[in-house]
Amino acid sequence: MIDPKIKTIAFDADDTLWVNETIFDATQERFFKLLEQYVPEEVLRKHLFQTEIKNLKYFGYGVKGFILSMIETAVELTEGLVRGGDIQQIIDWGREMIEHPVENIEGVEQALKTLSQHYQLMVITKGDLLDQESKLARSGLADYFDKVEIVSDKTAAQYQEILNRHDIKAEEFLMIGNSLKSDVLPVLEIGGQAVHIPFSSTWEHETVAPAEESHHQIVAFASVTEFVKTIG
Amino acid sequence: MIDPKIKTIAFDADDTLWVNETIFDATQERFFKLLEQYVPEEVLRKHLFQTEIKNLKYFGYGVKGFILSMIETAVELTEGLVRGGDIQQIIDWGREMIEHPVENIEGVEQALKTLSQHYQLMVITKGDLLDQESKLARSGLADYFDKVEIVSDKTAAQYQEILNRHDIKAEEFLMIGNSLKSDVLPVLEIGGQAVHIPFSSTWEHETVAPAEESHHQIVAFASVTEFVKTIG
């Protein structure tokens, strides 16, 4: 059951409320296919990941940074031979990703309906501002949330700042998300509670080493439906 | 003088607190120079502007969208002949723009110091989340502001939503900014007050037709220092 102290439950968005990583994965597969005539997939995969990490501090999380990293990888690994039409193709994929229909994860809407009767609900997500706002609007879930926070990163300091700004005590706060690194560990660090609901696919950068996990007892559920049953 | 009803004064950021358009303009000039062997400047300028407008709804305001629009313009107007090295160059400019030192506009810090003694101060700005947060931190001005709102667009509805969320009455709210379209007209529309402080350069998309202006008496000052003198 949920600790009776909890008053606010916050949800991560991508891969917690709706499917996201799947769309990135699919685009990445198309990218590997596009360039397979120049570079083997494994080389592309490794270089793309390194480029994304390098670009995080400039371009942040989200589709735009991903597209720029794919373009940069394409130019670098083909030694500039990549065709203009291929670059255009990558930018077209970016617009497609942004317009991709929002597919809510099974059971989420029912869970929000139940939880919203007992708790103040929030969204705390990172990514591009416009993109996340648009997905929340298109998800049809916006009305369940009292507050929405779109942030540039999810560190302990950023969670603390959000709680302070909304006058929420850490011990009355529970975060739910698919990423141990972004949704669980930083919230535990500031004295809040957190529930891990894994998604089938997690971006490599969001995974944590086992040692990092082991300081805490991580509470995990297979789905948000399973989690909501515990309040029944 | 400032209407005695006013309790909150909000500032736009780019080209109101610090120099921004100048950095975009300079990059754009380098872009024209890079491609002058393929396409005349006037054709590039027109196509780039059209591409930026087309991409606004996908990529929003900010450096990342600008870079993607330059890349797309380069590919389209050279019929794919643009070299990989040129594309890499454009992405490098993007990182340079994001790391560019923040140059506060003259008189702004003194004005904030004075105003913060009498008013609750806010920043309301659009652009990329990470980029705007970073600029505010590097400007050294963050401590003057009680609230910071980074939004995807500045429409009357978005201003109204911000005021509601912070329990601010429109008639007690004054917005200061360099864009009639984004900072002045939408605020007047919801019954707030606004002061126009023009910057030397305004992006074409932010200009408004004279007819749009004429419904209102626009209050304008040449600089924030001139504005602050009116409260003295």
Descriptive keywords:
10 helices, alpha/beta, elongated, DNA polymerase, domain 1, 232 residues, Rossmann fold, homodimer
Describe the structure.
The structure is a homodimer of 232-residue chains. Chain A is α/β, with parallel strands linked by helices. Chain A folds into two domains: 138 residues, HAD superfamily/HAD-like (Rossmann fold), CATH 3.40.50; 79 residues, Putative phosphatase, domain 2 (DNA polymerase, domain 1, Orthogonal Bundle). Helices cover 49% and strands 12% of the residues of chain A. Chain A is built from ten helices and six strands. A six-stranded parallel β-sheet of chain A has the order 3-2-1-4-5-6, sandwiched between helices. Chains A, B: Keywords: Hydrolase, Plasmid. Chains A, B: This is Haloacid dehalogenase. Chains A, B: It holds the Pfam family Hydrolase. Chains A, B: It comes from Persicobacter psychrovividus.
